[in-house]
Amino acid sequence: MEFSIKSGSPEKQRSACVVVGIYEPRKLSVAAEIIDRASGQFLGDILRRGDMEGKAGSTLLLHNVPGTLSDRVLLVGLGKEREFRENEYRTAIATAVKTLNETGGFDGTLFLTELPVKKRDVTWRIRQAAIVVFETLYRFDQLKSKKDEVRRPLRKITFAVDSRAELSAAEAALAEGQAIASGMNLAKNLGNLPGNVCTPTHLAEQAQEIAAEFKLNIEVLERADMEKLGMHSLLSVAKGSHQPPKFIVLHHALGSSEQKSVVLVGKGITFDSGGISLKPGAEMDEMKYDMCGAASVLGTMRAIAQIKLPLNVVAIIPTTENMPGGAASKPGDIVTSMSGQTIEILNTDAEGRLILCDALTYAERFEPDCVVDIATLTGACIIALGHVASGLLANDDSLARELIDAGQDAHDRAWHLPLWEDYQEQLKSNFADMANIGGRPAGTITAACFLSRFAQKYDWAHLDIAGTAWKSGKEKGATGRPVPLLTHFLLARAAKYK
Ligand code: BES
Ligand code: MN
Ligand code: ZN
Known about the structure:
Bound molecules: ligand BES, manganese (II) ion, zinc ion
CATH architecture of the largest domain: 3-Layer(aba) Sandwich
CATH class of the largest domain: Alpha Beta
Number of strands: 21
Distance between the termini: 32 Å
Largest sheet: 9 strands, mixed
Strand content: 15-25%
């Protein structure tokens, strides 16, 4: 898809289709008003006849509107003007793109990007519009032998802005939006691939490809390297699998040499069967998504590499399958982590924390400014926050604040949960330094408590994306979250150094 930004009058656009909004009930937006005047009240007459109320999600496609230079004018219903907020804006863009893709034209000019959204400026509107376009057109049909071809697919989209003064901010926002969207697409594709294709080896190869394309440094540690480092907690998870584990380290180093790095750590369980503590069969296929933390880290690296963000960022991805088998870890086994702390594995299905803890210890060598890990870690997080917000826990409140704000900004929200000492006692073990589970109460918090014991040397935050990384049911598929949150977080960090 080709994108561009324009400031100009809607009736003067030479385009296959100009898209303008209509509020409910039958109220013209500014751009619609201009077309109405240029066309001798053509739109007003149509509204009066009752063909378009302006309900959110409704559309009306008009041909040969007098006084305009485009082949078509598409009216998109926006709902009530007073209630037109972020979600309504996104819906309007999605509706427009879906409809344009089904018309005969190859290009469209969206005046919807001029619509005022409370507390949001042109930068936000353009970034979001680019992301919504990608989201609306996303298909995962790599593995279908027959693809549903769109007959005359949309090739070019132009976003309109109010004035020439906004052009340069809008161009920058467009580049950022496209970068975030392609990062999300990468994360979605990796998530949607089945476990027999997206293995730890496949993730390592994908990371190599990103490194080659954007000239990033990469190291991939093999099992023997991990053994030398003493990563026995991570390796204990890999024992039941026939796939070799990998430990991927990717460097984006466009910040100054004095700047400390932000480290991102992504959980990369390419299939979580539960191991010997085997999961029940229903929906077990969805455990191919247990590498979405890793996928979001790779997606974010792709996004910041594409916009050449002046910041130092290190991505760490511990990746393995979690499988049962004769060599697999058993409940009651005790392992020694890279930090030297011992862990009693009371449930082999609490494997995410077992691979993340060694990655958190490995992160110390970068003397990081901060570390953020991203993981589909607990079913309990879905019970607490549903599929709306990711869970956020941190050992530093200002880092937590930054991530919450980034999530708000990106329309990819997270919610702060407490990490009080009082919860730590749930992890007591009679035989080792700690157990890997803390019982049913506060499962998301005790999982983070476990991780916090390996993150004492730096500012650290943890995002539990169990509820937000993918959708179940009829619309089953990866969401690409939290690539927008993470990219906004890094954009804001880079801006601070300016
Ligand atoms: N990957 C799962 C968490 C998960 C489950 C995410 C369902 C999304 C949907 C994780 O490895 C896991 O199995 N966690 C256990 C922890 C428990 C054994 C303490 C859980 O949440 O049940
Ligand atoms: Mn598990
Ligand atoms: Zn898991």
